[in-house]
């Protein structure tokens, strides 16, 4: 059975004059079928071009940043929420094929499809009698 284990939030964000703010952890649903797993991550407000999915050493990272901007004609004195960031890291089991991940993003929801590795089926060898 394939596994996908949360590693936890990583890589706090910091700016020059702002305190360190941890990224928000998106809510995630993971389902399995005979062919692999599907993962849905809720990332409201994140534009498609700000969504990132990376896999390195069986660690799956999903991240996204949204820009709320500053109100017109105002200068920020202290800003922690102008660019909220989502991030979540999972460890993938070795029986999932990380090279064939498919990703889509629609209405603030990231969907990943991670197939299981193709397993070699036993080959029957016919034995002939001379």
Top CATH class: Mainly Beta
* CATH fold-level name: Immunoglobulin-like
| Proportion in β-strands | 35-45%
Report the uncertain regions: 7-19
Count of spatially separate domains: 1
Order of helices and strands: EEEEEEEE
Strands ordered across the widest β-sheet? 1-6-5-4
The helix tally amounts to: 0
- Could you tell me the radius of gyration in angstroms? 21 Å
Classify the helix fraction into a percent range.
under 10%
CATH second-level architecture: Sandwich
Structure commentary:
This protein has strands at about 5, 30-35, 35-40, 50-55, 60-65, 85-90, 100-105, 110-115. With about 130 residues, it is mainly β. The model is unreliable at about 5-20 (pLDDT under 50). The protein has a four-stranded antiparallel β-sheet, with no helix packed on it. A four-stranded antiparallel β-sheet has the order 2-3-8-7, with no helix packed on it. Helix content is about 0%, strand content about 40%. The termini are far apart. It is rod-shaped, with a radius of gyration of 21 Å. The protein is built from no helices and eight strands. The protein has a single domain, classed as Immunoglobulin-like.
Q: What is shown here, in short?
A:
With 130 residues, the protein is an all-beta fold.
Describe the structure using short key phrases.
0% helix, mainly beta, single chain, four-stranded antiparallel sheet, 8 strands, 130 residues, rod-shaped, Immunoglobulin-like
């Amino acid at each position: 059975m394939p596994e996908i284990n949360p590693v936890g939030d990583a890589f706090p964000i910091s700016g020059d004059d702002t305190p360190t703010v941890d990224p928000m952890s998106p809510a995630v649903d993971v389902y399995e079928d005979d062919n692999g797993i599907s993962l849905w991550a809720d990332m409201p407000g994140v534009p498609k071009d700000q969504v990132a999915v990376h896999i390195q050493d069986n660690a799956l990272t999903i991240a996204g940043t949204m820009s709320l901007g500053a109100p017109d004609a105002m200068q920020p004195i202290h800003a922690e929420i102008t660019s909220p960031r989502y991030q979540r890291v999972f460890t993938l089991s070795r029986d999932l094929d990380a090279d064939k991940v498919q990703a889509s993003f629609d209405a603030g929801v990231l969907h990943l499809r991670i197939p299981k590795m193709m397993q070699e089926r036993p080959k029957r060898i016919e034995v002939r009698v001379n």
